[in-house]
Amino acid sequence: MKGFYGRILEIDLSRGKSTVTEIPEEEYRKYLGGSGLAAKIYDSRGYAELDPLAEESPLIILTGILTGHNVPTACKLAFCGKSPATGIWAEAVVGGYWPAALKTSGYDGLIITGKAEKPVYLCSGENGVSIEDATDLWGEDAYATVEKLQAVHGDKTKVAAIGPAGENQVLISAIMIDGLDARAAGRCGMGALMGSKNLKAIASVKTENVPPLHDKEALAEARKKVLPQIREKAKGLTDFGTAGGVPVVEKLGDLPIRNWTGGSWSEGAAKVSGQAMADQFFVKHYACFACPIRCGKEMKVPIGPHKDTVSHGPEYETVAGFGAMCLNDDPAYVITANDLCNRLGIDTISGSTVVAFAMELYEHNLIPADLLGDLKPEWGSGEAILKLIKQIAYREGLGEYLGRGVKKAAEYFGPLAAEFAVESKGLEFAFHDPRAFTSMAVVYATGARGACHLEGLTYFNENKAIPASILGLPDDYDPHGTEGKAVLAKTMQDYMGTFNALGLCKFLNRGHVSPADIAGWVSAVTGWDLTEKELLTAGERLFNLKRKINVGLGISRKNDTLPPRLLVHDRGEGAAAGSLPHLGKMLYEYYQLRGWSLEGIPAKETLKRLSLI
Q1: How many domains is the chain partitioned into structurally?
Q2: Please, how many CA atoms are within 13 Å of residue 133, restricted to the half-sphere of its CB?
Q3: 213 domain residue, yes or no
Q4: CB of 141 within 8 A of CB of 156?
Q5: Cβ atoms of 371 and 397 closer than 8 Å
Q6: In the β-sheet with 310-312, what is the strand arrangement from edge to edge?
């Protein structure tokens, strides 16, 4: 085998034992590693029957075929399993340097089951993977955990860790990567799954044990050809990070405002944009492993308990969430909220959504006085945002309910609260509005893990940031119409699914990288002579496999929907005023393209064609 090891280490924390599982090469070609191979293992072993927080329930951590090689952005791996938040298929994909370091352990990843008697961490390095005592780390935030582990294992040690939120099994908790140069496996509550196993961290000491390449020279030539294009097309991300897009997104009517009820917020967007934060708080740029884009930004924390320390700068989703969603136009509070979430281990998308949800509950007098105390979660209150983040992490007061996510929280606060809960399949929406780009209605409604923008990214096609012609589709779409949206959603979902499996960052799309480019990289690494068609078919296979898993968990057409707010609430002003997605029509076309029944079930013929039965 070239490019990967063909073996996975399985660790039972209850027994303190590990075994090695060999994976045939044909399985990698069929499922591409990462979340693709994880879904195959999960499905074939019947793990879906287990409660996500049961001892036997697995946390599957797999690198992609390209992870750790000198391929542009080959920095990713996937945490997979059953979501404690949603109860369906979960994958949280993350970059940084830790995934590449883990790839040098001699294994393509880990499958972790059981529960340790006391807190532990795993350490991978020259001597394999060991289970170590983490009693003195329990209770520490994610940044402090990295510092303490580097003091023991060396400064170059890379770490994935949970904070107090994961320890407390908060259902919207994240797994944090690389300390203050933070990357987050944020979605689906995977921090809670890790915490349920008494697993505080995984420390990886990078070795020279990298799987051999098939054709190093061909890979170098392919990389040299595409790097200038990536750097040119993705320059905005390099200069200001993802938060630099806030003003443009607001102008397009795509920025969610006031828990998805507002129409425009141009002055506020300008105040909390990446450009504004760079002027006031910027310290330096940073990049993930093998990344030419360098979208990461370090910034000075301006207020709060960690004032004047340097920390990861907020991404677009965090700015949209703790900024526009909460009507907070003070960048100091956005940066500090981001820093707190990273340290405590909270997904900033779900975290900011539940805070905005609480503000709307407060506006309608739906929060019992005993849960409020002296807290006043009014729109725009930065202090309320910070207090609620801490309450969520430690499951205190109102945070006990918010930490369950908006769907479960709404069940506690009464029938009207459900109108304020913007989620699909139990997962809070990422911050791109399907009323602005209606293809996203299909992407959100059918996403394997719920309301995930990254499973399709079609708003980039509709706003012309990514030419759909690289996939053989038109480049021009009516952003508020329905024509062509089903095939766009389906095609992009298939393509994006290969990124998670291969270990690539989806910002490559901003560099106009094509399926042919990626197929060439895979061929140079593995020697497979992979075609563009085979790559996209693999993506289609993976999407249908995850749907098959979810169908077994009760998912069907009844779940492929949007919250009422996004189907019937007109933004009223701004570029998306008057636009509401015609989801029924688009879904009808989408199911036909997918080869699914009208109930959203993959047909037997479809599963056979994709070699899934």
Answers
A1: 3
A2: 2
A3: no
A4: no
A5: yes
A6: 282-286, 296-300, 310-312
- Residue 533, in any domain of the structure: yes
pLDDT in tens, 315-356: 999 999 999 999 999 999 999 999 999 999 999 999 999 999
Look up residue 583 and give its two tokens. Answer: 């989801």
Q: Which residue has the tokens 């759909």?
A: 468
Local structure of 310: helix, strand or coil: strand
With beta carbons less than 8 A apart as the criterion, state whether 81 and 190 touch: yes
Last residue of a domain, one of 394, 421, 448: 421
14 and 137 both lie in a single domain: yes
What pLDDT is recorded for position 563? 97
- The reply to whether 367 and 495 lie within a common domain is no
- The percent of residues in the chain predicted with pLDDT above 70, rounded, is 100
Q: Which two tokens stand for residue 92?
A: 């949280």
Residues 446 and 377 in one domain: no
Backbone φ and ψ of 187, nearest 5°? -85, 155
Q: Whole-prediction pTM value? A: 0.98
Q: Residue 115 carries which side chain, given as an amino acid letter?
A: K
- Based on the domain organization, do 478 and 337 belong to the same domain? no
Average confidence score pLDDT of the chain: 97
Distance CA 300, CA 311 (A): 6
Q: What is the CATH number of the domain that holds 543?
A: 1.10.599.10
366: DSSP letter: -
Q: Alpha carbon 534 to chain centroid distance?
A: 25
Write out the two tokens for 52: 């996500």
CA atoms within 13 A on the CB side of 553: 27
Tell whether 135 and 31 lie within a shared domain: yes
Instruction: Tell me the residue range of the domain where 67 lies.
Output: 7-204
* Mean pLDDT, range 56-67, rounded to an integer: 98
Q: Check whether residue 455 and residue 563 sit in a common domain.
A: yes
Look-up of token digits 């920095």: 75
Do you know the residue count of the chain?
613
Q: Which of 421, 452, 482 is the last residue of a domain?
A: 421
CB atoms within 10 A of CB 152: 11
Q: Over the stretch 263-321, which tens digit does the pLDDT of each residue have?
A: 999 999 999 999 999 999 999 999 999 999 999 999 999 999 999 999 999 999 999 99
Q: How confident is the model at residue 128 (pLDDT cuts 50, 70, 90)?
A: confident
- Report the CATH number that the domain containing residue 389 is assigned in CATH: 1.10.569.10
| Residue 194 is assigned to a structural domain of this protein | yes
